């Protein structure tokens, strides 16, 4: 094991590559709407229900997310790597490229065919370095009923698939 006393940007990235995370797409209403792929999504509190995600201030989606009152979090199934790649691609109309979505509450774009979907009211944004942490309260949600469908995971710089125990 390599031990270092100084955590610079390169070491920080290397350390976090060891952490596996579920892949989500977060969307927000706007003109045009915004959507991006993230692995920073997490539950925060059960009472009241709160979730969070982080986004860089330099991200193309940040101006819309910074003003949004509602967002949708879409947990991707392992067969949806193409969706993750679409919403991670810069310089394209991500919604036109994806195609399978419809407006939901407050105009938030809702992607079709995902493992789980949570529509949330944004309650706070907290600046944290070059990112902001967005805290949001889930208001509605739905999920895939088949428990054998596994989530898409990101690990060591690659999309990964879980093997289900027999």
From TrEMBL:
Question: Which InterPro entries would you find in this protein's record?
Answer: Flavin_Rdtase-like_dom (IPR002563), NADH-dep_flavin_reductase (IPR050268), Split_barrel_FMN-bd (IPR012349)
Per UniProt, residues of the Flavin reductase like domain are 16-161
Q: Does the keyword Oxidoreductase apply?
A: yes
* SUPFAM superfamilies tied to this protein: FMN-binding split barrel (SSF50475)
Pfam families to which the protein is assigned, alphabetical:
Flavin_Reduct
A GO molecular-function term, please? FMN binding
Tell me which UniProt keywords the record has, alphabetically. Oxidoreductase
Q: Name one GO biological process term.
A: pyrimidine nucleobase catabolic process
Q: Which domain of life is it from?
A: Bacteria
Q: Which residues form a coiled coil?
A: none
The protein's matches in PANTHER family, at most eight in alphabetical order, are given as: FLAVIN REDUCTASE (PTHR30466), FMN REDUCTASE (NADH) RUTF (PTHR30466:SF1)
What's this protein's name? Flavin-dependent reductase
């Amino acid at each position: 094991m390599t031990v270092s006393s100084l955590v610079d940007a390169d070491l920080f990235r290397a350390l976090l590559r060891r952490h596996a995370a579920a892949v989500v797409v977060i969307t927000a209403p706007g003109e045009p709407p915004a959507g991006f792929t993230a692995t920073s999504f997490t539950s925060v509190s059960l009472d009241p229900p709160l979730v969070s995600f982080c986004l860089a201030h330099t991200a193309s989606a940040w101006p819309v997310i910074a003003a949004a009152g509602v967002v949708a979090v879409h947990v991707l199934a392992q067969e949806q790597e193409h969706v993750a790649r679409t919403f991670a691609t810069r310089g394209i109309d991500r919604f036109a490229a994806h195609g399978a979505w419809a407006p939901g509450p407050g105009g938030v774009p809702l992607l079709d065919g995902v493992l789980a979907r949570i529509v949330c009211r944004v309650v706070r944004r907290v600046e944290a370095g070059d990112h902001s942490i967005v805290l949001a309260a889930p208001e509605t949600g739905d999920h895939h009923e088949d428990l054998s469908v596994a989530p898409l995971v990101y690990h060591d710089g690659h999309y990964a698939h879980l093997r289900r125990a027999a």
